[in-house]
Amino acid sequence: MRAVVQRVTHGKVTVDGQTVGEIGHGLVVLLGVKDGDTADEAAKLADKVANLRIFSDAEGKFNLSLLDVGGAALVVSQFTLYGDSRKGRRPSFTDAAPPDVAEPLVARFCDALRALGVHVEEGRFQAHMLVEIHNDGPVTLILDTDDLARPRRS
User: Fold this and answer.
1) In the chain, at which end, N or C, are there fewer CB atoms within 10 A of the end residue's CB?
2) Does the active-site annotation cover 80?
3) What does the pLDDT look like over 39-82, one tens digit per residue?
4) pTM above 0.85?
5) Which one is catalytic: 6, 14, 55, 79?
6) pLDDT beneath 70, residues of the chain
């Protein structure tokens, strides 16, 4: 799984002119699922997102997590995170999981965040969405479960 995590002051998803998810202070998580991802990886990634210390403390240091600040998460499924544009001019999406595999894993990720105590709003799976992101900082991180499984270099 791959997540683009953005610290926000506001996030909103609109489908056909109707708001389907909206948060204030918190994180917008653009979430891609690749073929072969598992429910265990979804839960581990949710734990990582909820506990990432990317919110400032009273001294301005990144010492607080989403859980610490009581922020919300807006999760938006985005298969294009697995677009491969190395060859040609049109990206290939063959690494992205098919919808019947991806949708339950996105739901598992959201459920795992909720189980940790995070208020979660969601986009609409397989819909054309307008996503409004008021990036705070800006602070943007890319998390990939393949990278999280590798040992860190010293």
Assistant:
1) C
2) yes
3) 999 999 999 999 999 999 999 999 999 999 999 999 999 999 99
4) yes
5) 79
6) 154
Helix (H) or strand (E) holding 5: strand 2-15
CA distances from 10 to 5, 45, 75 (A): 13, 22, 13
E strands of 53-129, at which residues?
A: 55-56, 62-64, 72-77, 119-122
**CA separation (Å) from 6 to 83, 104, 129, 139?**
20, 23, 17, 6
Share of the chain above pLDDT 70, in %: 99
For 77-110, give one letter per residue: b (16+ CB within 10 A) or e: bbbebbeeeeeeeeeeeebbbeeeebebbbbbbb
Instruction: Confirm whether 79 is a catalytic residue.
Output: yes
- For the record, the structure tokens of 127 come out as 């819909």
Question: Of the residues 80, 94, 125, 145, which is catalytic?
Answer: 80
Q: Establish whether 18 is a catalytic residue.
A: no
DSSP 50: H
Structure token pair of residue 4: 């683009």
**Among 6, 14, 55, 78, the one annotated catalytic:** 78
pLDDT for 149? 72
HSE-up of residue 133 (Cα within 13 Å, Cβ side): 21
